[in-house]
Amino acid sequence: MAEVIIGLGSNLDDPHNQLQQARQFLSALSESEPLCSSIYQSEPVGPSEQDFLNAVMVINTELSPEELFKKLKNQEKKQGRPSRYPKWTSRTIDLDIIAYDDLVLETDTLIIPHAEYKKRLFVLEPLKEVFPDWHDPKDAQTIGEMMDHAPTIRIEKTQLSW
């Protein structure tokens, strides 16, 4: 069974509800009760003008990375996200595999650990909340070290509940 870190983000069509739908979906995939961070609000990175709601969940699954990736993409589509979209734009839901156990993988469709997560405080801040001692399987960097080098953005924990 693999322990998988999933990053969640939304800024369209009732983002709080979008995260709640994604949580239900991910909980159903998990073999045990998932760990969920608080919900954070962050400024957008890139051309989007609306703030995002972000969170991190840790699930345990028997699915392979490829099977999980396909299920995440299908769920994104089900929640209204088009399959093709400009990078870093507004979206109903974004579900990213941040890490899958200590696996390091690079294929045409999947990179684990996620290629951009170290630059994203909207992933690192909630990840630090649920896994304060976690480190990158590729280079052993701690969350604190990654946060020190990540570009600064406005991010704050919300009072929204799951």
Summarize the structure in short:
The protein is α+β, with helices and mostly antiparallel strands.
Give a structural overview.
The chain is an alpha+beta fold and 162 residues long. It has one domain: 2-Layer Sandwich (Alpha-Beta Plaits), CATH 3.30.70. The protein is built from four helices and eight strands. The protein has helices at 15-29, 65-78, 121-130, 143-149; strands at 2-10, 35-36, 40-42, 52-61, 94-100, 105-106, 111-112, 155-157. The strands form two sheets. Strands 1, 2, 3, 4, 5 and 8 form a six-stranded antiparallel sheet that branches. β6 (105-106) and β7 form a beta hairpin. α3 (121-130) packs antiparallel against α4.
The CATH topology assignment is: Alpha-Beta Plaits
Structural class: alpha+beta
Total domains = 1
CATH homologous superfamily descriptor: 7,8-Dihydro-6-hydroxymethylpterin-pyrophosphokinase HPPK
Number of strands: 8
Radius of gyration: 15 Å
**Distance between the ends:** 25 Å
